[in-house]
Amino acid sequence: MSLYENRTLASAITAAVTGMLVGYPFETLNTRMQKYHYPSLLACARKSIAEEGVRGLYRGLLPPLLTASAAKSLSFSVFEETKHWLRRHDPYALQQGPLGLPNFQRKTVGSVALSAGVSGSISGAVIAILCCPLELIKVQMQLSRLLNRDLASSDATTASPKPVGALVSTPAGTLQGGGAAIATRQLRNAPAAPPWATSNLSVLREIVRRRGPLGMYYGIGLHILRDSSGTAIYFASYETVKETLRRLTGSDTTGPLTHMLAGGTCGVVSWLLIFPVDLIKSTMQSQVLKPKGAKTFTSSLQCLRDIHSRLGLAGLYRGISVSLIRAFPIHGLNFVVYEWARAHICRLAGRPE
Predict the structure, then answer these.
(1) How far is the C-alpha of 59 from the C-alpha of 32, rounded, in Å?
(2) Residue 314 CA from chain centroid, whole number
(3) pLDDT for 72-117, tens place per residue?
(4) Residue 284's closest CA among 230, 217, 234, 191?
């Protein structure tokens, strides 16, 4: 098969690798701020780099880097194929859809949004099923040192009474009491990383050892919910903004500035709407290696209620600053690279997009 025939895959791979290398450190900081309390993004970054170096921000990069190209190419391929299928098999191709909804012919902005939303939802669900084990490993690797501190603190307090103001392991990982600084210094003597976190493969083995093969799909329900809804919002907002800007400029094509604005917008919008689901998913998945009796939460609903009761609505957006800071430039870059690569392949082949 020619490069032209695989233009969606090739373009998505190029965009995925570029975006992963640029954005992964921000994703690591995001995961840490969701699970543990830091006064600010800068404080989290400084503490992480001071203790682990810049390399620590790329902990767990290998699995997503190796699979990002495959996942993104599959995501874009499923998205594009579903759009074409919906258009070819649209029973309302010559009229308005039921209840006044637009059809899938993509001749209006509403039709473009609906087509992209439905296609994105299907694409997201497929990717969630395939990538859940990899993301589960990534979460454990990103939090390995911090999780090990929790375990060390738990072991220490079991052997001796808990000092007043010590670091208490709470659902939010929050420092409690006036002796928090002392407790933090004590925990610095804990092992740098647990034995099971020496590599991605060792994390995989530990999860399977403790929970069996199905343990690799711990939190799959939340993962599907996040990716199906998030990807629907993501592609729908991108194509809606892109089509709206194209119509406003009266052009038949769109350029890098339009792709950057549309990509950045869709990244911000999708994160704002699905971030609470991502927060609960990461929190629940961080418990996969804990003994059943030591788990902080037994259900996602319990996790949601606890965070909301203690921290209010703002608690559901803990750590979102990292996601929003990286969302616009990273997702804007993602679509600029994707659209550029796709157009370049078509020009080389002398064929239309």
Answers:
(1) 12
(2) 19
(3) 889 999 999 999 999 999 988 877 777 677 888 889 999 999 999 9
(4) 217
